[in-house]
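Q: I'm writing a short explainer about HTH cro/C1-type domain-containing protein for a general audience and would like to include a description of its predicted shape. Could you first generate the structure from this sequence?
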Amino acid sequence: MTANTPGDASRQGWGPTSRQVAANLLRLRKARGLSTTQLAASLKSLGQPVPATGITRVEKGERRVDTDDLVALALALNVSPAALLLPADWSDAQVKLAENFETSTRVAWLWVEGRAPASSFGTESEMHVVEDDDDKEAEYWRQREEFEALTHPPQRRRAARHPATRAARQVSDAIDHLVIAANAKDKTSATKELKAAKLRMRQLEAELLRMELDLEADEG
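A: Of course. Here's the predicted structure. Afterward I'll give you a sentence or two in plain language.
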């Protein structure tokens, strides 16, 4: 299954992200209940004027947006830029990030959010990587730390490397898998994911307790 975007002849020759932005702009503008004139007024107030006709042309696939337009549109629509760049989907459905690269929509969102690289390892949670293979786990974390080294500001990067942060991410991943399995009415998988989520919760609690003890020791 592939996450598709609406298209027409006028969009031929556009890259996959440009087509996605055009589809998302139309969807989000309507969801906000904004006319093209109202959205154009908001863009003008932000110092990035795009006429109403220009917005219509973008939505029809007749005009591309540049990076300044993209950020201003996200601000005017009160969404993350990611909401314009990616499908409104969180699943194993495939989405093209470049003509010769695609991944699941779930991995694409993690990548845009700065949570994981857009690699084959991104198709699996940290929890499953750990369970499968020690070498695979090591390679996953090598790629993830390399990704974070240039993606995040130094302060955030240091926080991201803390054991408690890693444990919290693993809890989040486990719950994501649990919810997906539960929504799919897959009782066997849901039971397994629930057990894994509880394990990750205990690991997070242990890290938080360790931090609490360290704080108390510092005060002493």
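A: For your explainer, you could say: The domain at 9-85 is CATH 1.10.260.40 (434 Repressor (Amino-terminal Domain)).
Q: Perfect, that's easy to follow.
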